[in-house]
Amino acid sequence: SVYMLIFNLIALGLGPVFTGTVSSAIEPAVGAQSLRYAMAAVVVISLVGAYAYFMASRRVTGDLERLRGQR
């Protein structure tokens, strides 16, 4: 539960700031559509994170078996 608390504080605290910063940075290039592209960038970053979790989950069973064997 502490992990989820910290995760939510970071995600809810930095997510909107990151989105706004990216939107402001790309506004001169894309104009009024900058918020749309900034939000799309956040989704892409989230997909990369989801892929990393998926790849890590494939190893959990083997890691747990190795830990049980060390006892």
| Rg estimate, integer Å | 18 Å
Count of discrete alpha- or pi-helical segments spanning 4 or more residues: 3
E-strand count: 0
Helix residue percentage = over 70%
SS-based structural class?
mainly alpha
- How widely separated are the two ends? 27 Å
The H-and-E topology, N to C, reads as HHH
Q: What is the residue-mean pLDDT, rounded to a whole number? A: 92
Low-confidence stretches: none
Structure description:
The chain has three helices and no strands. The chain is mainly α. Helix 1 runs antiparallel to helix 2 (34-57). It starts with a helix and ends with a helix. The model has no long low-confidence stretch (mean pLDDT 92).
Describe, in short, the structure shown:
The chain has 71 residues and is mainly alpha-helical. It is 90% helix and 0% strand. Helix 1 (2-30) packs antiparallel against helix 2 (34-57).
Features:
0% strand, mainly alpha, elongated, 71 residues
Topology:
Layout: H1 2-30, H2 34-57, H3 60-70
